[in-house]
Amino acid sequence: MKIKDRILEIVPEAQFAEQGDLVATIPAESFHTLAERLRYDEDMQFDFLLSLTGMDWGETLGVVYHLESTTHGHSIVLKTMTANRENPELPSVTDLWKAADFNEREVFDFFGIRFINHSDMRRLYLREDWVGYPLRKDYDDSLNPLRMTNEVTEDTTEELSLDEEGNLVNKTNILFDEKEYVVNIGPQHPATHGVLRFRTSLEGETIKKIEPYCGYIHRGIEKMNESLTYPQTLALTDRLDYLGAHQNRHAVCMCVEKAMGVEVTERIQYIRTIMDELQRIDSHLLFYSCAAMDLGALTAFFYGFRDREKILDIFEATTGGRLIQNYTTIGGVQADIHPDFVKKVKEFIAYLRPILKEYHDVFTGNIIAQQRMKDVGILSREDAISFGCTGGTGRASGWACDTRKRKPYAMYDKVDFKEIIYTEGDCFARYMVRMDEILESMKIIEQLIDNIPAGDYQVKMKPIIRVPEGSYFASVEASRGEFGVFIESHGDKFPFRMKYRSTGLPLVSAVDTITRGAKIADLIAIGATLDYVVPDIDR
Q: What is the topology of this protein in the membrane according to its UniProt annotation (predicted)?
């Protein structure tokens, strides 16, 4: 039975639109029933909540859900809404997908939608005393002058639930008891890899609970995009994660090109793929360096940074940038590759392959490193899928989640490479996945570098780019996992809504689950091997 028929069987009043992606609109009162059936039905098994996006359509507020089945490989886009803008309420799906926890808090933070049966309806990024909801179309930013007072940290939160008669009741949940010993790790701490704060409840040296606090670096990129043209939005994607700058821009350009029906040349596809894989090696070298430094191995840190500079030199010659890569464009790339690009890339790969053995000699085989990482911070495959922990973290838990294999794009269906999968789900597995992926990235580049075809590096585009009306989604395998872009267009030169599927938010949302029962020192190894980047989380 087709998914559309199954949805209509469960919710006959469901409506379907095929402007861009196929989207099913579900009445709010039927939404949880349908979501539960889609999650657990043997023929459906939508166990992966890829993205959850808050929306303001003017008269209504709502949410768009992108669901996938890791068993069957199919996907569906659902949306539900409420016309009550004063007290908007929708059913929570946190009981079905753990990824919904932080995503629903994000929607509450920016749109004010409260989710029934969500146990923690606090803001995720903004201060609790923030006035209004910034991603609403009628938001008035004059309501929030600069506040110089410290924010009070609350230890209670509200849960909206239904009683036996179907009436809404408010219930207070306690986050940390007065008797608990709670310490702050971050937001100024080198091992949080950015301004991220973990409130940690300890019993001796054992972690009882961790509550992550995001928002210390929030820059409102998704709000800014609503007043930028599509080419202008590209400048902000590089800043989300400078270790995935090429890949992030690639995702946005792919989404716009898909919406407009633009076919780019094979030369462009080759160049984009090579740049993405160089970026992955760049990211994994920094991961190696920082993970080693967090565990006290300073020599390994210098090794990784020394070799990463060689990639940045290659980037700079072609793109003009080392960290910020304003290179991939809608319909192509900014400029052709440097005359020495092919030669320098081949020299770098010939250099790095034997050097990787030194990496393993100096750090991987070290008894201290192994004791700090093996059997520490285990994430099960089921939890990885439920939280949406893609990338190296998911593959270390046995989940074959590589977007390059599941949804091939660019040249990935034309090259031979292995998806690196470990099953232990611990810190060491997460570390080894990334180290092995460096070799696979080099293998991909070697198959392409001598065969870059002639042709244009930029397809001719209209001076003003207008995306056809509809909703569109595209994703790539970025350095830290599946980076997705959702665009809803009303046919203008500005996106009505542009949402980024963060690779890091699922990783941080899983920290509490991974660390419970571990030692406080283990948090450092766990954070290092999850490999999140904070600006990507805060967006």
A: Peripheral membrane protein
